[in-house]
Design a protein that fits this description.
Number of helices: 12
Strand content: 15-25%
Order of helices and strands: HEEHHHEHHEHEEHHEHHEHEEEE
Number of strands: 12
Radius of gyration: 20 Å
Distance between the termini: 34 Å
Length: about 325
């Protein structure tokens, strides 16, 4: 893809927008172990086509990736197709015009595309991830170009994802998990059918527990679920809170040991055929948020489910308002 030339002037402006010193090192980035300085982040953010307002979001995302429990080096080196899915919450959504509705993961949204691409360029140019050399994904997926969207907080019947994770209402945050591309879940609501909420949960759980997925076979890892606004209301109108939905999906997303053994023999631990194996360890491993246009389809994002920490979710606050105006811009 084309890049914006990272001239010294452009990079300096983006460093200033970060509110941080250019030589501040946020830590080594795997698998190559490159020093993740603010200047290097700014350089890749310029190249990706971002504007200065995007810089704090990119910095927050990179900080999240560098958290030890994310196992970035191992994730970059796996043969699985995983890529960091970025979910943005808070006032920065409007400030940066990050899309949450129709086509949020598709073309036509500069902030989504360029912020996600900036993070990927950092992973390649600082972390030294190279296809077939240090990035060993057998096929990859388009999210390895860019994989960023916002939660549709206005359409959500619940508190924001970030608030559910402990952030203050006024905070802007980035939530990241290593994920596959979205797997479509079709569901038709019938307001006269009292079983509709249960049917929706069963449909979502069936995709989460897909017997060919890493989650089902490893019984670990986080999973993201993007409910479209209409589907979210089906569950909320049934009196279900976000935690209720997470608990129900965790309960339903199971396979018998025999069903898993019938597909893969190498990952199934010894035990009775009738034992039920959860696709995720605990309800909190299901990242439930509202996004996309209303209609028939929601989406599940399975994960890698491996690494030393088993592919957890990480979060970081977006720090804004730390920069000042360029003296020559007044």
């Amino acid at each position: 893809l084309p890049v914006v030339i990272p001239t010294p002037e452009r990079v300096a402006r983006f460093v200033l927008a970060s509110g941080l010193d250019a030589d501040l090192d946020l830590g080594p980035m795997g698998p190559g172990g490159g020093a993740t300085t603010v200047e290097k982040i700014a350089t890749n953010t310029v190249m990706a086509g971002c504007i200065p307002d995007h810089v704090p979001v990119v910095v927050a995302a990179v900080r999240a990736l560098l958290q030890p429990e994310f196992d970035l080096g191992e994730m970059q080196g796996t043969t699985h197709c995983t890529a960091p899915l970025m979910i943005v919450n808070g006032p920065v959504i409007d400030h940066c015009d990050i899309a949450a509705g129709f086509g949020a993961l598709g073309p036509g949204h500069r902030a989504n595309a360029s912020i996600g691409r900036a993070v990927r360029l950092c992973m390649m140019n600082i972390g030294n991830a190279r296809p077939g050399v240090s990035d060993m994904a057998l096929l990859g997926h388009p999210g390895k170009f860019t994989f960023c969207l916002a939660e549709d907080e206005r359409s959500s019947p619940w508190e924001s994802l970030s608030e559910s994770l402990g952030a203050d209402a006024g905070d802007s945050t980035v939530t990241i998990l290593g994920a596959e591309p979205p797997h479509s879940v079709i569901f038709t609501n019938d307001a006269d059918d009292p079983d509709s909420p249960d049917r929706l949960c069963r449909a979502l759980a069936a995709v989460i527990a897909n017997t060919g997925s890493n989650n089902a076979n490893f019984g670990a890892g986080a999973v993201a679920v993007a409910l479209n606004p209409e589907h979210a209301l089906v569950l909320a109108d049934a009196g279900m809170k976000r935690t209720d939905v997470q608990a129900e999906l965790h309960r339903l997303a199971v396979n018998s040991r025999a069903a898993l053994r019938a597909v893969n023999t190498g990952f199934v631990r010894p035990g009775d055929d009738d034992d039920l194996i959860h696709a995720v360890r605990v309800p909190d491993d299901i990242v439930l948020f509202v996004a996309g246009g209303s209609g028939l389809y929601s989406a599940v994002f399975p994960s890698w489910a491996a690494g030393a920490h088993r592919n957890p979710v990480v979060h970081e606050v977006v720090v804004t308002g730390e920069s000042c105006d360029l003296p020559w811009a007044t």
